[in-house]
Amino acid sequence: MKQCVKCGETKAPSEFYKEKRVIDGLTARCKTCMKGDASSSYAGRREAVAARNKANYSAQKEKDKSLRLNYGITLDQWNEMFDLQGRQCAICGSTKPNHASGQFVVDHCHEFGQVRGILCGSCNIMLGHAKDDVNTLFAAAMYLVSNSTPESIQERKNRLKAAP
Q1: What is the pLDDT averaged over residues 72-91?
Q2: Average pLDDT estimate for 28-54
Q3: Has residue 150 got a pLDDT over 80?
Q4: CB proximity list for 78: less than 8 A, separation 6 or greater
Q5: Residues contacting 17, CB < 8 A, separation 6+
Q6: Does pLDDT of 64 surpass 90?
C-alpha cells in the first residue's frame, strides 16, 4: 500500500503509475490525481495547444512517417517509384487515385512485406479480393477474354426487340 502525496489516500500499488527513478518504482501521486492535474492543465491552454499543433503539422512529414512505419520506405522513395510509373497506377494506368483517402496506395506483398508498386484504390482492392493469387487473376483474365463479344448490350437489346 502507498499513500498519494496529493489526495492523502492510501491505495494499492496498481493505483500508481510506474516510475523507475524512485526507490519504490511508483509515482508519488496516484493515477486519479495525475489524470485530474493533466486534464485541468490542458483545459486552460487548449487553444494554445491546438494552435501549436496546427502550426507544426505537415502532411508531407505525416505521410513520410506513415510510409516508414508501415512499409519501410521514405516519402522520397515513394515519389521516385511513382515517377518511374509515370505518376499513374502501375496496373490500369489511371491518373486518379480512386481511393477514399484521395491518394494512391502502396501495393505490397502481405507474406514477405515487399513493396511492389503504387496503385489506385480499385486495382489494390482487386488484388486484395483475389488474395494476390496469380492463378485467380489469370483465370479472371481468361474468363473476360473468352466471354467478350464485340456486340454491345444495346445492340443485343435492339436485336431482341426486332426478333419476331
Answers
A1: 97
A2: 93
A3: no
A4: 63, 67, 106, 118
A5: 26, 27, 31, 34
A6: yes
Domain regions of the chain by residue span: 2-54, 88-146
Domain 88-146 = CATH 3.40.1800.10: yes
β-sheet bridge partners, residue 136: none
Q: Does residue 73 sit in helix, strand or coil? A: coil
Confidence of residue 154 (pLDDT cuts 50, 70, 90): confident
118, 82 in Cβ contact below 8 A?
yes
Instruction: Identify the helix (H) or strand (E) that includes residue 79.
Output: helix 75-84
81/104 Cα distance (integer angstroms): 12
pLDDT for 104 equals: 97
CA gyration radius, the chain: 29
Is the pLDDT at 110 greater than 90? The verdict is no
97 contacts 120 by C-beta, under 8 angstroms: yes
Task: Identify the CA nearest to 10 among candidates 1, 20, 23.
Answer: 1
